[in-house]
Write a structure and sequence with these properties.
Order of helices and strands: EEEHEHEHEEHHHEEEEHHEHHEEEEEE
Helix content: 25-40%
Largest sheet: 5 strands, mixed
Number of strands: 18
Strand content: 15-25%
Oligomer: single chain
Number of helices: 10
Strand order of the largest sheet: 1-2-3-4-5
Mean pLDDT: 92
Length: about 400
């Protein structure tokens, strides 16, 4: 197993070496370039197959309240960023065969069926494996790329692929998608209804339990409260809902009914039945996020990884591990990058999750863009411009 470097990210890749063959399956893990190269070294210097996720189950930007033109722009950037990350890792490892996999998500319940626009092959935020393989083949033509469907098989000794006859009739094409999803939804309707029935509307004590839940979270990590440092509004719809503000500050956490003069940085909207699932432990916050049964808005449009991390982990030892990782970073190894006639001294490793910026980043528009998680840092100030992260500590040479 090869876990991601930062404990904030709890995914892991698997390296399998058997019978003289080696497979690196990245799963959901976003490995650094150095990790991918080390995996190849551990495999004896060559990988027969490397599988990379090119379509994550991410609520951004699909669940965000963007105007249509902004949604299109952000979706394209998300799509290309993910594909470039896969391209970078494969360039570092040069497997005999590279296989993009996963996604895009599809939605069968009427409540979220409108989100199926993420499936559009030309402009959706997430790619299907065939589109991913075509893009990667174009941008890294010397590499062999293939995509697979259920039942397909490959013989690693020869490289011969046998296609499953049933899966071969399936198409990701836009024209074929709508009728397929309609049939799929009809087939699954009884199961979906059974799940939904397990999440009834909450009782009148919802706000009291919401308050107790966040007061508990607020006592787990002073470090996370300091890093979050903002007001988050929860707009809870349906019976016994309301608009409630949670303040995350260095001096503690507060929960209060929303007031007109308060300006939240994040707004999270969801139905009371789903919030109730979190409060009773039937759902984790991450389950709710990747269910897409909520909408989000942020002003300014800056991602706060610490807010998501606190909700996702909700566990004191896990949060302490993140704090130890981030406060114990060694920044003595530094590199020089050039932009617009000036040279800047920056840490070799990204302050967010440890990517090697000497091979895993690009410099454009006066910013260092880390390709692992798409965090961008201003070279002049070191500040992260699109997310809440530690300063890059860049210095003008």
């Amino acid at each position: 197993m090869i876990p991601e470097l930062s404990p904030m990210c709890h995914d892991a890749a698997f390296l399998v070496v058997a019978d003289g063959r080696a497979i690196l399956h990245c799963n959901d893990a976003r490995l650094t370039a150095a990790q991918a190269r080390r995996a190849r070294h551990l495999a004896g210097g060559a990988l027969d197959l490397m599988a990379l996720q090119t379509s994550g189950a991410s609520w951004h930007p699909i669940c965000y309240e963007y105007p249509p033109e902004e949604m299109a722009r952000v979706s394209t950037a998300k799509r290309v960023s993910k594909l470039r990350a896969a391209q970078r890792l494969v360039r570092q490892t040069e497997p005999a065969l590279a296989v993009p996999f996963a996604g895009p998500p599809c939605f069968l319940d009427a409540e979220v069926a409108h989100l199926n626009q993420v499936l559009d092959q030309a402009g959706g935020a997430f790619c299907d494996p065939e589109v991913s393989a075509a893009w990667l083949r174009e941008h890294l033509p010397a590499q062999r790329w293939e995509s697979f469907k259920p039942g397909d098989a490959i013989e690693l000794d020869t490289g011969v692929i046998t296609r499953d006859p049933v899966s071969a009739r399936f198409s990701f094409a836009d024209a074929a998608r709508a009728p397929y999803l309609e049939r799929y939804a009809a087939d699954r309707a009884p199961l979906i209804e059974g799940v939904l029935a397990g999440f009834p509307d909450p009782g009148p004590d919802l706000y009291d339990r919401f308050t107790a839940h966040f007061e508990h979270l607020g006592g787990l990590s002073d470090y996370f409260l300091t890093q979050i440092d903002m007001l988050v509004r929860f707009d809870i719809t349906g019976p016994n809902g309301g608009r409630w503000d949670v303040g995350f500050r260095a001096d503690g956490l507060t929960v209060n009914p929303a007031t007109p003069d308060a300006r939240p940085h994040y707004r999270i909207t969801t139905a009371g039945r789903w919030l109730d699932g979190v409060l009773t432990g039937r759902l984790a916050w991450e389950d709710l996020l990747i269910s897409f049964r909520l909408s989000l808005y942020r002003d300014p449009d800056v991602y706060n990884d610490y807010l998501v991390g606190l909700l996702k982990h909700a566990n004191a030892p896990a949060l302490r591990a993140v704090e130890a990782y981030e406060t114990g970073r060694d920044e003595t190894e530094r590199i020089i990058v050039d932009w617009d006639g000036r040279s800047y001294d920056i840490p070799r490793y990204c302050p967010h999750a440890g990517e090697d910026l000497s091979i895993g980043a690009v410099v454009r528009d006066g910013q260092v863009h880390c390709l692992a998680h798409n965090f961008a840092f201003d070279l002049a100030t070191g500040a992260c411009v699109n997310a809440r992260a530690a300063n890059l500590t860049s210095r003008l040479c």
